[in-house]
Amino acid sequence: MVAVSETGVAPVGAPVVRRRIQTSRGYRVFQVVNALILTAVMVITLYPFINLLAQSFSAQGAIAAGRVNLIPKGFNLTTYKTVMADPTFWENYRNTVVYTVVATLIAMVLTTCYAYVLSKKNVKGRGFLIGIAVFTMFFNGGLIPNYVLVNDLGLRNSIWAIVLPNAISVFNLLVMKAFFESLPGELEEAAMVDGLNTYGILWRIVLPLSKAVLATMVLFYAVTFWNSWFSAFLYMDNNSMFPVTVYLRNLIAGATGGTDQSASGDTALQVAANIQAVTIVLTVIPILSIYPFIQRYFVSGVMLGAVKG
Amino acid sequence: MSSTQPLGAATAAGSRPARRLRRRTWRQALRRDWRLYSLAVAPLAFFAVFRYVPMLGNVIAFRWYQPGGNLFGEYWVGFYYFQEFWSDPSFWHVFTNTLVLGLLSLLFTFPAPVILALLLNEVRSSRFKRIVQSISYLPHFLSVVVVAGIIIQLTSTTGPIDQMLGHLGHAPIDFLQQPGWFRQIYVSSEVWQTAGWGTILYLAALTTIDSQLYEQARIDGANRWKQTWHVTLPGIRPTMVTLLILNIGTFMAVGFEKILLIYNPLTYSTGDVISTYLYRVGVQSGSFSYAAAIGLFESLIGLILVVSANFISRRVVGTSLW
Amino acid sequence: MNSFSRRRFLGVLGGGIAVAALAGCSTHQPGGASSGSSGAGDLSSNKVGAMDAFAADAQFKATAPLDFGMMMLNNPNYPYKANWEFFTDLKQMTNVSVSATTIPQSDYPTKVGVMVGAGDAPAIIPKTYHPAEQAYISSGAILAVSDYLDLMPNLTATVQNWNLDSDLDTLRGPDGKFYLLPGLHENVWVDYSIAVRSDILQKHGIDVPGTWDEFTTMLQALKTAYPSLYPFSDRWSSTQPGPGANSLLATLGNAYNTHAGWNYQHQTWDASQGQFVYTGATDDYKAMVTLLNSWVNQKLLDPASFTQSDAQAEQKFADSQSFVISANAQEVVNTYEKDLTGVAGATVLKIPVPIGPAGAVNIGSRIECGVMISSSARKSPNFVAMMQFLDWLYYSEAGKMYAKWGVQGQTYTGSVDDGTFKLAPDVNWGGLNPSGTKQLNVDYGFFNGVFAYGGSSNLLNSQFPPAEQVFQKVMNQRKTLPLDPPAPFDDQQQQQTTLWATALLDSVNQNTLKFILGQRPLSEWDQYVSELGGLNSKQYIDAVNQAYQTYKKAHG
């Protein structure tokens, strides 16, 4: 896919530079080629999803014979009804929503605060504060120490076991810090003259200017928490507390994981392929639908340029 | 008050001379910026409790550890485990594979979102743009198991790629049995999965570019291409550099789960990486200490890489993480 | 035992690298292990709720209401419910309730590893596959259950009646104890074999093969009838430790007197020499590889068999692109037959395992996965009652019948021993009673892999449809070969051999596939064997033989 876009740019872009007079025509050609490239990207990306969607509406036999491609074969809604009738699925679904909202909220508060401090070039001890964070990108504790810690803090079987240990992603922190650094310093100075303190500046000046990055970070965190399963798997002991990702993983692994090798009466039954497809579709859709609400902030960031000028 | 603890630690980390002077300035800094420091208290507590405390467990790289026994191991064995992997030829084999695969991924997955974002930026119809964007994010949401399933399907001898080759009169290739194809398959799937999602940061950065700069460039007679080169790219350079440095630091951490699902003994020679090797060693014995030792070694490499990348970047382009 | 292995370890390191532990003992005091070889120790303070006169075949009922913590594997096909009749009836019958830690099946061993490793596991840890328990022995996190067999009359009687001593020996560590309460079978249960499209065989007048030679002939005949297809396209490639097509290799390995596929193990007992030899270098292994290579050369076996996903292999079989595939009883019913329902006249037959150079024999252990006990449970006042409870549930006839089929007159009628067994009209399991509307495992919690292990051949047969019972009858007539003698590694040998084992296994797997697929000519076999030598195959086998001798001297 990259190969396509790379070769797509060079031959179109290069002649434009050489023949300045034909800029507008060259640019039009580029627009067409660009649209083609992006359409190709869409097709390549979409194929597996349409396939998945088609499977979710198809009969088991048709999937097994590999006949389902882009259009459902043996159209039916039975699997959707079955999955949606499972109370555990909805219970876990609700957990996922709650965990994602709470975790994202807390992560945003902590990350924003710390990133703002780090973005101040003249704050004393800045290098140390950054070092503390960056170091943890590379060095971390093992599975068992983490488990013992969460257990000893009494967080097991509570939402905090999922929220607290993952409250700051250093990657997001550094991205946010870089964004804050790029904000014009004059505004804050002006605000200080107007008598705003640090909290006021952050709340009234910096955050309103940072909608684009805040929206991005919310998206990043929300998607991460929505998709995460390992913490919940590790720290929860009860079906009713699992997020839907654990439910999904158990379903998928039931079908793809190695079959019991030993002669056991519990050889994994194959979970029908369309049940998997339905569950994947149902889990992916909500987080996808957040995006349009967030997207407008990417556009609104333009105002920043105006302020800057 | 609680903010004094990390600050005290910071003093110790600072340089030795002029200690008294420093002390005074610390006091001043605190008095002046206490509100700012107060914002760092909760995050620092987070790092201390949930990152640095569990890190103590890494001491088992130097100690004899029994699962279910003492958390920090039973007794010291010094560099025993380090010597063990240092003298293990298999380790160096997978180490090389990890380097190659990581470098290749970096080489392709880093520029892909930049190019895609630039292309998207040129799209005039905001509706088309929005559709492309939304769709290109989709692969990010798929679990590794599903992605691996797709890869296996596409590359099988009955899959679409071999069908296409068949039309061209080429004999079918069993891609997943050929060590020579493993890297290409892995890297393309990584690009497929990350390129769209990666554009988000660049698109956010693009919105911050001052529109007057484009105006200025147009007046100076720059065409679209030149505008891209002289205005757009410099505008997103801090974001690019930040991400590049971060990627360099983590390029050893190649996708364990995906490789585990698509490699097989025939492709060990190119596809086997440190994490999958550890998995095979670990499955048989649960050698936590051995894994911890290799983990520390990997971490050290990552840290060195990121520090050097940061240093070079600060010298050359003036942007850096810290 | 702890200090014993510690001393040995120090010896190996020359004492120079290692420094004595800071604390004399680990924080987790092992129960049985710490009291040395004296065994069970004093149990007088652990008898709350226990029955005084608990004996084999007696109904267990705790004298006080008890509750035991237990890890509960959650199978997505029948998700765990706390209000299953299994639990409510169990409570009534035995006065015992179970506090479950629910763990998704997908990652069960991971969580067991973390919880036991953190010293935080519930008392009862079922679904443990030997040798997974061995990692926890030296820290004392789990109990040496062999010290408490006198609390378990049903287990003891079963071992005696079915002559299971040598099977149990395979579980023992170098200290002569075992740490797992295993599921016990009356006979070796052969489940995996090969499924064929019997309608296709019939259509072309091809005989069902009885030996591997006849099997080859069958593949050739199919190839003649369908020249553009690979008649055999196989599955089960993602399982450890084999290189791919792991069920086929395991089945063939048995027929060739060797270990391959998911049965691969580094050592093979050579009875004539009275010692172990390295499996991947034996002539038997080579003969097996040669046969597979000839299949690939004649295009009888799809080369993708060793790498494709199960779904792909199933697709080819469902789509009549192949006619032969590895199978077990459940896959025949739940996958192959189901997928072929759209194909008119298609029938699937799981053929009796073809006979090879080893003769008409069954190879294998009569032990399946089992239960670990956390050593912390030893200190509980209810310890004795718990062991009695486990003994009744997992080893008494009544307990096994209850765990598998439920309550007579409600979920089933008749008896498995006289062949009158029948599921109740409204209850279904595994397609045995298709008209039943309730699922025995989903709705009642019976036939749950956590509780239903092992059992008599009659009990096992009761779960099979008629076709599978025919298969079992044929297999049961074959002779069962004696097991390899035990050769358990101690800690230090374990540590030392682990790295060799990984490199060796990688090389064996890689080259097995290369030889089979023709990527490496078989003329290079000797070179391959010397490559194994370079990877310490000799040192590995020496360690095994040393462990064998040591064990024989101490416990033999």
TrEMBL record, chain B:
Listed GO CC annotations: plasma membrane
Keyword match Secreted: no
Main location: membrane
PROSITE patterns: ABC_TM1
Signal peptide boundaries: none
Keywords from the UniProt entry: Cell membrane, Membrane, Transmembrane, Transmembrane helix, Transport
Matches recorded under Pfam families: BPD_transp_1
Membrane topology field: Multi-pass membrane protein
Protein name: Sugar ABC transporter permease
Native source organism of the sequence: Actinospica durhamensis
Automatic annotation (TrEMBL), chain C:
Keywords: Signal
UniProt entry tagged with the keyword Signal: yes
Domain of life: Bacteria
Position of the signal peptide: 1-23
Gene3D superfamilies, per the entry: Periplasmic binding protein-like II (3.40.190.10)
Protein's recorded name: Extracellular solute-binding protein
Source organism (scientific name): Actinospica durhamensis
Lineage, top ranks: Bacteria, Bacillati, Actinomycetota, Actinomycetes, Catenulisporales
